[in-house]
């Protein structure tokens, strides 16, 4: 004779079960409270985790940069990328152009391939630099020269006394006010007579420089740096730290790259880049937002920091 199967007994939750439910409820409540607290803190301290795109006040694209300056002139035509390359590049606001130095008494020719690309909005990585792209194209890094200081000509620089004190203090706690503007070339620039603010501490700009070896055995030097949210940085990994300041509502960066063939050293490339920037940097800076006006809240029109009034003007000489 077989016994009847045991019938499960129905009972209320045990003490352990009730304790588990209570713990889950408490944990859920704490997480909700923490989320609300974080949200409140982000709002209170004006922390912006999402970055908006921003364009320059001038609406100038990089293709508008002068084809000729006092000492340099374009050679050939601008390089136009294919649709596939543009998709990889991640921007349509770019310029790839070769400049040749105008004849000098010493008769030495000098050519520099200049590439610039503008990015804005949510910036995750900065993959398009020579030590990644050139190596991906089959070249080798022959030497990492390092970050070479660019000794720019400061003759036409002037300290901008119209920059609000709180903006100066934000980037320069010592209060020395390292914000400068400079004149542009009246003969070659599109917006003749308009002054341009330079990146913060322009005397500290450094060119990340490397020597590359081509499969055929020839070599060349290439270097780059970035302008991001009004400052400069020489390394790709530094762009996010500069452009993603939690206090900034907007984010942009501009890669400036210089490549030269027939040069004996990285210093020679840096010298050529310096000569070109001496005459091009003011025009370049009008192809990016004036970050003093962005921080002051006077640009763009929907800037959350907007307090009324017009742009912060640059002081005339």
Give short descriptive properties of this protein:
alpha+beta; 2 domains; three-stranded antiparallel β-sheet; 22% strand; disordered N terminus
First-residue to last-residue Cα separation: 113 Å
State the helix count: 7
Enumerate the spans where pLDDT stays under 50 for 5 or more consecutive residues: 1-11, 34-49
Number of strands: 11
Radius of gyration: 27 Å
Helix content: 25-40%
Biggest beta sheet summary: 8 strands, antiparallel
Please indicate the count of domains.
Answer: 2
Q: Mean pLDDT across all residues, rounded? A: 83
Structural class: alpha+beta
Beta-strand content estimate: 15-25%
- H/E order of the elements? HEHEEHEEHEEEEEHEHH
Which outline best applies? globular
Q: Which oligomerization state do the chains in this entry correspond to?
A: single chain
Describe it.
With 317 residues, this protein is of the alpha+beta class. The chain contains seven helices and eleven strands. It has helices spanning 15-44, 83-89, 130-136, 165-171, 239-243, 266-285, 291-296, and strands at 72-75, 94-101, 111-120, 140-149, 157-159, 180-182, 196-197, 206-213, 219-228, 231-233, 252-261. The model is unreliable at 1-11 and 34-49 (pLDDT under 50).
């Amino acid at each position: 004779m077989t016994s009847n199967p045991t019938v499960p007994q129905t009972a209320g939750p045990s003490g352990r079960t009730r304790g588990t439910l209570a713990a889950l409820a408490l944990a859920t409540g704490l997480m909700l409270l923490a989320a609300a607290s974080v949200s409140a803190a982000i709002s209170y301290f004006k922390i912006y985790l999402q970055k908006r795109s921003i364009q320059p006040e001038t609406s100038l694209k990089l293709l508008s940069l002068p084809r000729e300056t006092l000492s340099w002139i374009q050679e050939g035509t601008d390089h136009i990328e294919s649709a596939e390359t543009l998709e990889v590049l991640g921007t349509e606001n770019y310029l790839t152009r070769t400049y040749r130095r105008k004849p000098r008494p010493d008769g030495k020719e000098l050519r520099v391939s200049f590439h610039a690309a503008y990015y804005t909005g949510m910036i995750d990585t900065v993959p398009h630099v020579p030590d990644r792209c050139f190596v991906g194209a089959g070249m080798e890094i022959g030497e990492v020269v390092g970050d070479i200081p660019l000794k720019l000509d400061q003759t036409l620089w002037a300290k901008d006394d119209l920059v609000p004190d709180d903006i100066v203090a934000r980037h320069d706690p010592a209060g020395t006010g390292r914000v400068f503007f400079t004149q542009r070339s009246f003969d070659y620039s599109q917006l003749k007579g308009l002054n341009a603010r330079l990146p913060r501490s322009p005397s500290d700009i450094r060119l990340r420089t490397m020597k590359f070896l081509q499969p055929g055995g020839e070599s060349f030097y290439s270097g780059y740096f970035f302008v991001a949210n009004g400052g400069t940085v020489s390394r790709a990994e530094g762009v996010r730290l500069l452009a993603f300041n939690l206090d900034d509502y907007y984010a942009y960066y501009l890669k400036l790259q210089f490549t030269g063939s027939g040069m004996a050293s990285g210093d020679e490339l840096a010298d050529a880049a310096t000569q070109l920037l001496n005459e091009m940097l003011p025009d370049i800076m009008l192809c990016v937002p004036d970050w003093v006006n962005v921080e002051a809240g006077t640009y763009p029109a929907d800037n959350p920091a907007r307090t009324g009034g017009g742009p912060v003007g640059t002081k005339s000489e």
